[in-house]
Amino acid sequence: MTAIVANSRQERWWNSRTAHRFMNHHLALLGMVMIAVLTLACVLGPYLLPYDSLYIDLRARFAPPFTGHHYLGTDPLGRDLAARLFMAGRVSLLVGFSAMLLSTLIGTLVGVLAGYRGGWIGTTLMRTVDGFLSFPSIFLVLALAAALKPSPMMITVVIAATSWMEVARIVEAEVRSLREREFVQAGRMLGLSGTHIMFREILPNAMGPIIVAATLTVARAILMEAYISFLGYGIQPPLPSWGNMLNGAQQYLGSAPWLAIIPGAAITIAVTSFNFIGDGLRDALDVRGDHT
Amino acid sequence: MVAGTEAVSGEDAALSVRGLTVDLPKGMERTHAVENISFDLKRGQILCIIGESGSGKSVTANTIMGLLPKLIPVSSGAIHLDGTAIIGAPAKKLRGLRGRIVSMIFQDPLSALNPLMTVGEQITEVLTAHGVGTKASRRNRAIELLTEVGLPDPELMYYQYPFRLSGGQRQRVMIAMALALEPTVLIADEPTTALDVTTQAQILKLIRDIQRRKGMSVMFITHDFGVVAEIADSVVVMEKGRVVEQGTAEQVLKSPTHPYTQRLIAAVPHLTGKDRAVQEKASNETILKVEGLSKTYRSGSALFGSQRIVPAVKDVSFELAAGRTLGVVGESGSGKSSLGRLLIKLQDSDGGRILFEGRDIAKLSESEFRPLRPRIQMIFQDPFASLNPRSTIGQILTVGPVAHGMPYAQAREEARGLLAHVGLDAGAFGRYPHEFSGGQRQRIGIARALMFKPKLLIADEAVSALDVSIQAQILKLLDQIQRETGVSMIFITHDLRVASQICDEIAVMQKGRIVEHGPPSQIFLNPQSAYTRELVAAIPGERPKDTQPIAVNS
To answer: Of A198, B18, B135, B462, whose CB count within 10 A is highest?
Structure first.
């Protein structure tokens, strides 16, 4: 029923100071455009290219970029690199996004609960976070990935399991300071339940830092996926991902450098763009600048 | 910029401001922060600039100090400090003037002092920056200054860090810093607003004494007419960036000519000393009875032996009849806010009983107490922090009743009705808190508390954050509500003048205990305890008729 009254003023959000500040952040805007282009290319690209990503043409092996209709060249089996790059992008971006959603969800739940309840619940949860943080995450990921049957789903879960702690810490700190604000006291005065106060009163006020952390988590997750797949524990061929494309490219580094450069550039662009967006959002959502 | 300079008679004005206009960036609510203001600060006088929030008084002070942010430029006008034109003067020259010719005391002495430097270092730093004296002479001068501002044990004080000092002591250190180079003009920007009333009285006396002893000129910015009556030789009244009235303190306070000044002075709460007329709806039925209530804060760890124990409320007992108002007054740290939070069970008490309508609620758990919550409601202090910025007014008002099972449609109708009742239009329902002013937000806070038709309303410093004219309106609204609904109220405040306006009975708290309890006539006219006497005597601008008014210095 809250939705009835919620949308009276919110349609103006693009006029807000936050939106203005974000639009004035040139790097963030650039990042936004790059991600949009990259996502569009990965979604639509495979339909527009003349070659399928799994079509093998042994006569056209190791074609350098711009030979015929192979715009980015071909790989050691003569598969079109552009088609493979875009298909791999789908997998990598999907894994990145899903890992972000999952880890943000876990982190937020843990953070809100620990921050609002405090006491032994808070202590237990936050010491668990510390425990997770003290594992060298890359080894943990490799160990988990080696033990489990690798699939995009599994990789997502494994990455999320090692990256929710940062969100949890940020949210916990934020909630702990919001908990003392008078509007939360007022919620208790009205006799609202703890769950209502945590998720309906406090959480909307902590969204800024959560969004920033989430954006940066996407970047981290994409890198992480590339790591694991490069080492051979992640996405398994023939399904391409940016990481396992790099893996396949390492023996031909001297003779066919584009095999490494192209997926490498894709990873770099995606990761830096997400980092730029995260920085821009951090500046734009900075609550101190918005207090009136 | 040169225009108007001949008006400055260099001899008798230490500071003269002529036709000063400071622009605001586009898109703000008005185009100028201050517009065409002119006034003189005569040598050896105290000039009070008074106005409500947003009147441009602090901008004026910062312009004179040359401390305006780049975003808001001076567009025209002239300022002469001790004969020197300062608008358009190079930054280096201004820096030389600051501290030497003009210096400033700020509102919040804690944030104005560097927490990592000792008191002595901060004072000698001023001297070093202006290249005055040797290391030894600077130290002597600092100790001399600390003595002058009345700090105990100046030799020891020299090595103290700010966090060890009380608010009043910090403000004394700020004053010592400002006086270090014997400036001609001292600007004080609300220097006593953050202080308790007894401390405020001491600081006002100190500023007046020093001003007289040194023949300094003081520009004193305040929002409190009580302070003006206490200290001013002449007064400038500002409204929305314009000077609406100026003259001697006598003229402005006794026979104000501008309607705004008249309104402001009429709104100032005065000690009435009269008991409140008994409410029609009041009965003798006791709604709340508190017996031996206590609360102790523990911080740190008992395990590691670093525990700090602070008793906040000690053995407090009182009774409140239906439809009546009990004022709880005291200075910061007296435990009055803790008491309010204990009564509404935002905190659990350690001992004692709270009998609400005959039932002890002190022992109830949160879930047992939840059904009773609608009967005891609270109005919070800070109208900016007490409303969720992400919720509409409608959500804020209806969320409680809906959680207690009222159908949404009914809650919405009642919320609309209440908004009208507290003086807001029904269109407020779909808007967000940031679209309202402080006074309007406090009305929303009151409407929220009334949604449940409570039996007991606790107002914790409910009008302290508001301008004086708004304060008067809110007090009137609370009074009206009590007459209509017969709700009982506990009115927590640090301001005895406000308490005297609205309370049937007053309890004075000190260090967690109630030291005196009685009707306003007793508390204000015939106080029984020494502490109450001290509190009443410290109220600015309220002197019993038989004592001497402060001699006007020339």
So the answer is: B462
Q: Do A191 and B370 touch (CB under 8 A)?
A: yes
Neighbours of A217 (CB within 10 A): 28
Question: Which member of B371, B388, B400 has the closest CB to residue A183?
Answer: B388
pLDDT given at position A113: 94
| pLDDT score at B126 | 87
Enclosing H/E stretch for B311 = strand B308-321
Which has more confidence, B465 or B37?
B37
Q: Residue B383: which residues within 8 A CB-CB, separation 6 or more?
A: B438, B439, B441, B442, B444, B445, B465, B466
Query: In chain B, which residue's Cα lies nearest the Cα of A207?
Result: B390
Q: Which of A200-209, B7-16, B396-405, B414-423 has the lowest mean pLDDT?
A: B7-16
Residues B512 and B491: their CA atoms lie apart, in Å, by 16
Residue B510: alpha-carbon gap to chain centroid = 19
Q: Is the Cα torsion angle A226, A232, A233, A236 positive or negative in sign?
A: positive
Q: Between chains, do B346 and A186 touch, taking CB under 8 Å as contact?
A: no
Residues B321 and B284: beta-carbon distance below 8 Å: yes
Whether the full predicted model's pTM is greater than 0.80, yes or no, is no
For residues B106-122, average pLDDT: 84
**Cross-chain Cβ contact B373/A8 below 8 Å:** no
Q: What is the pLDDT confidence band of residue A9, given thresholds at 50, 70 and 90?
A: very low
- In a mutagenesis test of the A interface, which of B399, B416, B461 is the best target, namely the one with the most A β-carbons within 10 Å? B399
CA-based angle B424:A201:A115, to the nearest 5? 145
Q: Which of B262, B170, B175, B265 is nearest to B211 (CA)?
A: B175
Long-range contacts of the stretch A10-13 (C-beta < 8 A, 24+): none
- Report strand pairing: B325-329 vs B505-510: parallel
pLDDT at B440 over 70: yes
Cross-chain CB nearest to B403 (options A182, A185, A190): A190
Q: Which pLDDT belongs to residue A12?
A: 56
Contact status, residue B32 vs residue B22, Cβ threshold 8 Å? yes
What are the DSSP calls for B455-478, one per residue?
SEEEEESTTTTS-HHHHHHHHHHH
pLDDT at B87 over 50: yes
Q: Compute how many other C-beta atoms are within 10 angstroms of the C-beta atom of residue B296.
A: 14
Residues of A in contact with B394 (CB under 8 A): 5
- Chain B, nearest residue to A196 by Cα: B403
Provide, as residue numbers in chain A, all residues whose Cβ is less than 8 Å from the Cβ of B344. Answer: 189
Q: Using the beta-carbon criterion (under 8 Å), do A190 and B448 form an inter-chain contact?
A: yes
**Record: contact A5-B434, CB cut-off 8 A:** no
Q: Which two tokens stand for residue A171?
A: 């949210």
pLDDT of residue A173: 92
At A54, give phi and psi (nearest 5°). -105, 0
Per-residue pLDDT reduced to its tens digit, A257-290 = 888 888 888 889 999 999 998 888 888 876 444 4
pLDDT value for B7: 43
**Mean pLDDT across B44-50:** 91
* DSSP character string of A116-158: HH-HHHHHHHHHHHHHHHHS-HHHHHHHHHHHSPP-HHHHHHH
pLDDT at B347 over 50: yes
Nearest of B477, B403, B486 to residue B440 by alpha carbon: B477
Cβ-Cβ contacts under 8 Å between A and B: the total is: 81
- Asked whether B35 and B241 are in contact (CB, 8 A), the reply is yes
Task: Say if residue B1's pLDDT is above 70.
Answer: no
CB B441 within 8 A of CB B383: yes
Is B380 within 8 Å of A182 when comparing Cβ atoms?
yes
Q: How far, in Å, CA of B35 to CA of B33, rounded? A: 7
Confidence of residue A6 (pLDDT cuts 50, 70, 90): very low
Work out the mean pLDDT of chain B and round it to a whole number.
Answer: 84
